[in-house]
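QA checklist item 7 of 12: single-chain prediction sanity check.
[x] sequence parsed
[x] length recorded as 227
[x] structure emitted
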Amino acid sequence: MTDAAQLLNEAAAVLLDFDGPVTPLMPAPANMHAADAARQALTAHGAVLPGDIAVTSDHLAVIRWAGTHGPEALADVENACTAAEIDSARTCTPTPGAHELLAALHATGTPVVIVSNNAAEPIHAYLERHGLTAYVRDVVGRPYLRPDLMKPDPHTVHRALTIAEASARRAVLIGDSVSDIEVARAAGVRSIGYAKTQQRGAELREAGADAVTDNMASLTSESGSRR
């Protein structure tokens, strides 16, 4: 497996997942509050939810379900989830080392595009709150009313590559979920998995991550050695 330092040193652009690598956007109980708000929007339209959707704390799973089974409620579901994400963006804390990594990449002139299944609005709110907007070229968030285009579909990654003006083979994606690694592989982008647990590290490696780190702070010195 290639190490993260080599990948960052070779990358002409960095595509960065948000929830996890930058900040734990939706920690408990915020995740359940968002999922409950999404469910309320669905039931207001008369939807009958299956057992797994009725109890999940993953609001993105509720959005996906609405896209397939409750399209008439999808706008209300999306809006409820975005509002919950914005609320959380006002209080969530940084992942250690994430802000320093953004500053280091900016110092070397490496474009960073955030690619997330969260809506763009809360991500912009977080960046503005912490004075990080200048470090990010743009944000590609959840495609509104198109949950089918969320990661692991490569749509958002392709958009991010265009914004970064980089080819897939010259970019690296940093993410903490199996879907991040899957979308990187689908788009032909190399990947660094961020794993907070040994089990997640094993899952990311099995999914095909080119490198895995358990510490975002460790990437700062690696990016600082560029050029």
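[x] summary fact logged: Strands lie at 13-16, 112-115, 138-140, 171-175, 190-194, 211-213.
[ ] second reviewer sign-off
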